[in-house]
Amino acid sequence: MQYSQFGRKFKEQTGIGQLMEDLGSPPPGACMLGGGNPALIPEVAEVWKEIVSKQIQSGSLHKSLGNYESPAGIQELRERVASILSEESGTSISENQIAITNGSQNAFYLLLNFFSGTFANGTRKKILFPILPEYIGYTDQTLETDSFLSFLPKIQEIDSSYYKYYIDKENFKSVSDWMEQAGCICVSRPTNPTGNVITDSELEFLISKSREADIPLLVDNAYGYPFPGVVFEKSSFIHKPGMIQGFSLSKLGLPGVRTGFVLGDPETIELLQKANSVINLTSASPGQYIALDLFRSGEWKHLCKNVILPYYQKKSEFARDLILRNWNSKLNYRIHQSEGAFFLWIWVKNLELTVSELYPILKEAGVIIVPGKTFFPGSDSSWTHREECFRLSFVREEKEIEEGIIRIGRVLEKFSK
């Protein structure tokens, strides 16, 4: 069957689509350390159960299941989200700056294509990633090819076990035409896959650069502030004019309801709502009504600060300790400083095979990870660092995490020079 260029794009996808396929058909008994699903935290699950139970008893569940909402979303929910973001950022935010979408993945598909590709004056613009690695889900989202302009990071080795990526500000000087090429700047905070949280000063630097180029700065807060707030290092939620920020209920513990929020200028928000009406008619209602009850009660803040954040921080510490205790000391590896999100990012030097080549061997050994090269959109394929890294999820049961880490260590040791 013949497909258009649009259809072939999905047939040949290499990013999130391929990953989801692999995660959907693991070998029996595999340790699934490759996925991004949030953990089922009992205290959080109990909150959802209570909210839905009340909706059933009151009869309001029928409304969430049986009606289309406005493409803009539930008015009160947009007002509540605006109020929360105003309080958290210390700035005045109104409901006409809030869009509701079917998850942040859906939102960024639209946003990245709004600000890249061919413009009305015939110019072509790209998405600028100011620091790599970046989220695998961006890789296949653009409708036009060659839509990424990416800057390599500055790498700081902290000690014999850890390191951290920083924005290399010199890139903005050495790439003299970046302002002509870029239609937007995009960064996730914390970053999937590395757990890196760009510092407040780095974020302020990106805000200044986006203003200088008169382009928006897109910030993906899927794991960040203010919900779910899975940020281990001290930093701030910042919003200033020119920024467009995405949020999601998924990592709060509701990935199945596919509900996301976008904070931006009213013109972009209106454009998102119009696109939503064409693509989806409207955003799914169940997640909106659950979020509305959660935000009305104010319980979201307690959940994020006192339940969700400490849960994942403990998981991160557990996984890092397992690696340091179980992997051969002769292995030349470092763990990216874990500052947030659900993953560890491992850099292993002096391997006989690339991580991509090791992937099927690891799969055969009964452990699923995600090779690093898929997290470097628009980068030079000759940069060997891409093939020396992989993402490991610590959002599984402790026995599975432990067994998976031990299996990974055995394979790496076998192929270490």
Overall average residue pLDDT: 93
Total domains, how many? 2
Q: How many strands, what sense, and barrel or not for the largest sheet?
A: 8 strands, mixed
Q: What low-confidence regions span 5 or more consecutive residues with pLDDT below 50?
A: none
- Total helical segments: 14
What's the overall geometry? globular
Polypeptide structure, described:
The protein is an alpha/beta fold. It folds into 2 domains: 5-39 and 303-414, Aspartate Aminotransferase, domain 1 (Alpha-Beta Complex); 46-297, 3-Layer(aba) Sandwich (Aspartate Aminotransferase, domain 2), CATH 3.40.640. Helices cover 41% and strands 16% of the residues. It has helices spanning 5-11, 16-24, 42-58, 60-66, 75-89, 104-114, 171-174, 178-181, 200-213, 266-279, 285-297, 299-326, 355-364, 398-414; strands at residues 31-32, 98-101, 117-118, 124-129, 148-150, 154-157, 162-166, 182-188, 217-220, 243-248, 260-263, 333-336, 343-348, 367-368, 370-371, 389-393. The strands form 3 sheets. Strands 2, 3, 4, 5, 8, 9, 10 and 11 form an 8-stranded mixed sheet that branches. It has a 6-stranded mixed sheet with strand order 6-7-12-13-16-15. Strand 12 and strand 13 form a beta hairpin. The longest helix is centred in the C-terminal third of the chain and has 28 residues, at 299-326. The mean pLDDT is 93. GO terms for molecular function: pyridoxal phosphate binding; valine-pyruvate transaminase activity. Pfam families: Aminotran_1_2. Its EC number is 2.6.1.66.
